């Protein structure tokens, strides 16, 4: 242990602790901007400077460790003045038109500048200018970048893709796409993790809210909205609602107030995905000698983009099942249009997703088969739908919970856990077990694949067949897993991959709480919803059973293939 004094308070902390952590663990906050624990500890912003008795210069608290007898001041006149100058200098190179910024009210720079009482920027404004690719789902605003390097680090260390790098030198230093490429020429997976780790508004998703407002105002359009599994665990965060209050049924009433005609659940098609993908896997197992294993899940578009750019020779190992989002669009504009007895081109299909890559997915030509424009017309992130709720001045606190519309709003507990890493695998195994044995397993029989670990594996018995499964989330973990498969170090039959750490719960379109990872907490909500659902198996969803009876026939039928599957190689 080391004895130190911070702001006249005697403290004992273990050796090797940073000054920042020592202060934090004793409820002494030191403001910081670029710091991310174990990811970005480079002291680039110099906002966390502190004074140490006997040392002439100020030091950064995030990457200097305590020493025996250190006397530290976190808020002395010298610290305050330097911190203020540092923030003013950052602001002089930052487009600080906060009123027109997507992160206003949720921006670390804004908070720090306000806390320091900065009311004017005494330095000449010097903003960088660069063109960004118009319409790309991921948007970079160079004028807001504060060069904290977080995007570089998260893309490099967590996602293993190195899309960002520093460009130019000196005062012209900026962050840009690496190797002088345009973003669309890079291998960006569109996971959005750089967005959720940006402390300011330099990175954000393409805003598609106006397209939805226009559709809602168009009387000829029938607006249909689907809510992704993981959205229900997070939508209330930015609105200051508690998890208990911000239920999915309150989101349903909020969307109804907004004017959507039909409010449905992506969970319905998550159940459908299980029927199709589970059957596909069992077919492959029957024909083991002629098939390549493992089969990989295909519901995460960030992962599909990664597979296509990094391991194109393995693309044929992806399940042919479309994602629940795309299955929903196809079903809404075929089966549901028939139920409504309307021309499918009148249906305007909106998705609310915790994901930025879904904006790309809905646009992929081989994922659009219903024949009435795009199957999913617009994808909104959780953050965008929160902005729409605000824009409409809807106060969810005043609304009662309401039910989803039927039949595409009926779903099982197996579907809701899709939103957490391991959930797709667990849901698929529940139904695969039934399809093989004609008996339901204990719904929690496959819970070994739950939890935040980035790479999990398990072996399960399916009627005497040992099935080796693995689950990975985060693309860095994914790369390690695939390399191990390619090197013959591991062998699996079925693998679930999600691009974002923790799965969709930690998706790149979810609300941002700077420096805090919320995937685990949100996953708990989803597992709780599974537990209390009367239906725990996709094959027991009565609306799915009816959809097969009345429309699709059976899993892997001709119609299923046309609407719900795709050739991933295209
Ligand atoms: Fe996901 Fe999925 S789980 S990919 O994370 O398979 O985005 O939530 O909607 O499509 O169901 C996301 C979540 C989501 C799909 C489903
Ligand atoms: Fe990297 Fe994901 Fe950001 Fe693309 S979206 S640059 S892959 S972190």
Task: Name its key features.
four-stranded parallel β-sheet, Alpha-Beta Plaits, about 575 residues, about 35% helix, Ubiquitin-like (UB roll), binds iron/sulfur cluster, alpha/beta, Fe-only Hydrogenase (Larger Subunit), Chain L, domain 3, single chain, 17 strands, binds 2 iron/2 sulfur/5 carbonyl/2 water inorganic cluster
Task: Assign the CATH architecture of the largest domain.
Answer: 3-Layer(aba) Sandwich
User: Strand portion, in percent?
Assistant: 5-15%
Oligomer class: single chain
The count of domains is: 3
Share of helix among residues? 25-40%
- The level 1 CATH classification of the largest domain is Alpha Beta
| Number of distinct beta strands | 17
Structural class: alpha/beta
Question: Would you give an account of this structure?
Answer:
This protein is α/β, with parallel strands linked by helices. The chain has 3 domains: 2-115, Ubiquitin-like (UB roll) (Roll); 138-205, Alpha-Beta Plaits (2-Layer Sandwich); 207-570, 3-Layer(aba) Sandwich (Fe-only Hydrogenase (Larger Subunit), Chain L, domain 3), CATH 3.40.950. It is 33% helix and 14% strand. The strands form 5 sheets. Strands 2-1-5-3-4 form a 5-stranded mixed sheet. Strands 11-10-13-14 form a 4-stranded parallel sheet, with helices on both faces. A 4-stranded mixed sheet has the order 12-17-16-15, with helices on both faces. Bound molecules: 2 iron/2 sulfur/5 carbonyl/2 water inorganic cluster (HC1) and iron/sulfur cluster.
């Amino acid at each position: 242990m080391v004895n130190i004094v911070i702001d006249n308070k005697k403290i004992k902390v273990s050796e090797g602790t940073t000054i920042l952590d020592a202060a934090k663990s004793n409820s002494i906050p030191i403001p910081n901007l670029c710091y991310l624990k174990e990811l970005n500890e480079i002291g680039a912003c110099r906002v966390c400077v502190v004074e140490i008795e006997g040392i002439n210069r100020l030091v950064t608290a995030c990457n200097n460790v305590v020493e025996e007898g250190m006397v530290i001041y976190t808020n002395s006149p010298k610290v305050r003045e330097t911190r203020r100058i540092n923030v003013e200098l950052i602001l002089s190179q930052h487009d600080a038109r906060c009123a027109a910024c997507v992160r206003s009210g949720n921006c670390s720079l804004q908070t720090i500048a306000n806390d320091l009482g900065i009311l004017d920027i005494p330095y000449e404004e010097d903003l960088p200018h660069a063109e960004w690719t118009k319409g790309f789902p991921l948007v970079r605003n160079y004028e807001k970048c504060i060069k904290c390097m977080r995007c570089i680090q998260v893309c490099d260390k967590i996602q293993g893709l190195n899309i960002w790098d520093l460009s130019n030198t000196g005062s012209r230093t900026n962050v840009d796409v690496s190797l002088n490429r345009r973003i669309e020429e890079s291998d960006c997976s569109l996971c959005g993790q750089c967005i959720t780790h940006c402390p300011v508004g330099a990175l954000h998703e393409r805003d598609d809210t106006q397209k939805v407002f226009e559709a809602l105002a168009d009387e000829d359009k029938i607006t249909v909205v689907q809510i992704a599994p993981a959205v229900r665990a997070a939508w209330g965060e930015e609105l200051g609602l508690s998890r208990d209050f911000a239920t999915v049924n309150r989101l349903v009433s909020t969307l109804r107030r907004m004017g959507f005609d039909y409010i449905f659940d992506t969970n319905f098609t998550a159940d459908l995905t299980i029927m199709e993908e589970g059957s596909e896997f069992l077919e492959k197992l029957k024909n083991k000698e002629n098939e390549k294993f493992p089969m990989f899940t295909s519901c995460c578009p960030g992962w599909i983009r990664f597979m296509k750019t990094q391991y194109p020779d393995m693309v044929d190992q992806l399940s042919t099942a479309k994602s629940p989002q795309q299955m929903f669009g196809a079903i809404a504009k075929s089966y549901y249009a028939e139920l409504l007895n309307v021309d499918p081109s009148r249906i305007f299909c909106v998705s609310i997703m915790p994901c930025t890559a879904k904006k790309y997915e809905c646009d992929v030509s081989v994922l659009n088969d219903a024949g009435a424009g795009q199957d999913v017309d617009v994808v909104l992130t959780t953050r965008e739908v929160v902005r729409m709720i605000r824009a409409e001045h809807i106060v969810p606190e005043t609304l009662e919970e309401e039910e989803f519309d039927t039949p595409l709003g009926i779903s099982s507990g197996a579907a809701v856990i899709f939103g957490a890493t391991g959930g797709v695998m667990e849901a698929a195994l529940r139904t695969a077990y039934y399809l093989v044995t004609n008996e339901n397993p204990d719904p929690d029989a496959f819970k070994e694949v739950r939890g935040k670990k980035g790479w999990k594996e398990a072996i399960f018995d399916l009627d005497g067949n040992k099935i080796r499964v693995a689950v990975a989330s985060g693309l860095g973990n994914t790369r390690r897993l695939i390399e191990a498969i390619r090197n013959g170090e591991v062998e699996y039959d079925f693998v679930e991959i999600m691009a974002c750490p923790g799965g969709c719960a930690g998706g790149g379109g979810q609300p941002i709480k700077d420096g805090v990872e919320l995937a685990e907490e949100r996953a708990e909500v989803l597992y709780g919803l599974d537990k209390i659902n009367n239906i725990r198996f996709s094959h027991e969803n009565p609306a799915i059973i009816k959809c097969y009876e009345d429309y699709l026939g059976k899993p892997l039928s001709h119609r299923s293939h046309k609407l719900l599957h795709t050739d991933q190689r295209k």
